[in-house]
Design a protein that fits this description.
The chain is built from two helices and no strands. By secondary structure, the chain is an all-alpha fold. The protein has one domain. Helix 1 runs antiparallel to helix 2. The longest helix has 23 residues.
Length: 85
């Protein structure tokens, strides 16, 4: 005779802690800032070249911010929510 295992009722709990979500939102903000800095730089007239598309902000700063934001997201996922100080 086998006993049936009655699963205990699960609590509706979040996967991550409050600290994880705060760090995730910071990472999303950094990623969004990077994409905002990449935007623009186009020309109204397609026959005129606008060299502003190759400035430091769009070529170096914005992609760096996006990569840093992805790093922050990875850190937020790996952060232990149960660790106390």
């Amino acid at each position: 005779m086998s006993k049936k295992n009655n699963p205990s009722p699960q609590q509706n709990a979040f996967v991550f802690g409050k600290r994880n979500y705060i760090v995730m939102f910071i990472g999303l903000g950094v990623i969004a800032l990077g994409f905002i800095l990449m935007a623009g730089g186009g020309s109204d007239d397609p026959n005129v070249f606008n060299p502003a598309i190759y400035n430091f902000q769009r070529i170096r700063l914005a992609p760096t911010l996006v990569l840093i934001g992805f790093g922050i997201e990875a850190y937020a996922i790996l952060l232990n929510p149960r660790k106390t100080k």
